# Entry
Amino acid sequence: MRETARHREAFEHYYSLGNKRALVSVTGVCGVSFKTIGRWSKEFQWKRRVVDRDKKIADALEKKADIKQIDRKARALATIDKMYKHNKDKLQSMPIEDVSDYIKLSTHEQLLTGEPTDRSEVNIALPADMNENKL
# Structure
């Protein structure tokens, strides 16, 4: 069977139901029997189309969110860069007790660029009968 505008309209209504999606809800809107809607659903792969469309929408939203996050970070880094340039002389002549603002700014920059802000050392004691070569 070839999908017609009527079939697509039935699917679009089905899709629009969201979490309350049910074939029986489409019968009244389309004026056809439940059996017919069931056949259309199977024939035109409504379940797969719902999954595909949901994934497509989720991917688009994720991409949009990523772009917004990248833009926010870029603006924050640009602001930090302007602050560095604007206050370069002040920062170089700043007494050591006032350096905390510089450290905060530097730490914020590290966070925005994905760099670690702290380093930790972990020592693991191996049992006496085990050496590093057995790992």
Q: What stands out?
A: The chain has six helices and no strands. Helices lie at 5-16, 23-30, 34-43, 46-86, 88-93, 100-113. Residues 61-113 form one domain.
